[in-house]
Write a structure and sequence with these properties.
mainly alpha, 3 domains, two-stranded antiparallel sheet, about 10% strand, elongated
Length: about 160
């Protein structure tokens, strides 16, 4: 599409000037018609060339079209706030897997372990902090109950 637009803008002015010499009172009309006409022609030519030159037709699996959401019978009459989720998966070979989750990981009923919590913190904070600052921040966080002030933590994460 970008190539067709570039080609159309390159050939538009000479073609519009040629038509303008034939009918000078329609300058703006010719500009509009020639630009869009050239764009359409180049789009068609490039599309046909691409189809001809590309012997392999790539097919992408549209995963979203293969997902069928529905209300599980166990959940039809549940109240708001119920976090229960069912996942049923059938593979291309016919294997079937089912899983029922009543809460998500990190929920008070299924809390993260200390190691999982630190891993999550490091993954998020590593986008902004160096490894040395991450280590200092982790040490400060794990000793928050022993600190008199938040100065060590603030120093660790200061940019």
């Amino acid at each position: 599409m970008v190539t067709a637009a570039l080609l159309a803008t390159n050939f538009w002015e000479p073609a519009a000037r040629a038509l303008e010499g034939w009918q000078p009172s329609y300058t703006y009309v010719f500009d509009f018609i020639v630009l869009w006409g050239l764009f359409a022609v180049f789009m068609i030519v490039l599309r046909v060339a691409t189809d001809f030159l590309s012997p392999v037709k790539v097919r992408f699996i549209k995963l979203a079209e293969r997902i069928y959401p529905y209300v599980h019978p166990d959940l039809e009459h549940t109240k708001a706030g119920n976090l229960t989720t069912y996942l049923e998966l059938t593979t291309a070979k016919g294997a079937r897997y089912e899983r029922r989750l009543t809460t998500h990981q990190g929920h008070p009923d299924d809390p993260l372990s200390d190691q999982e919590m630190e891993t999550k913190f490091r993954r998020c904070a590593s986008l902004r902090l160096s490894e040395a600052k991450l280590q200092a921040a982790c040490e400060a966080i794990w000793s928050l109950d022993k600190l008199n002030t938040l100065e060590p933590l603030l120093t660790a994460i200061a940019g």
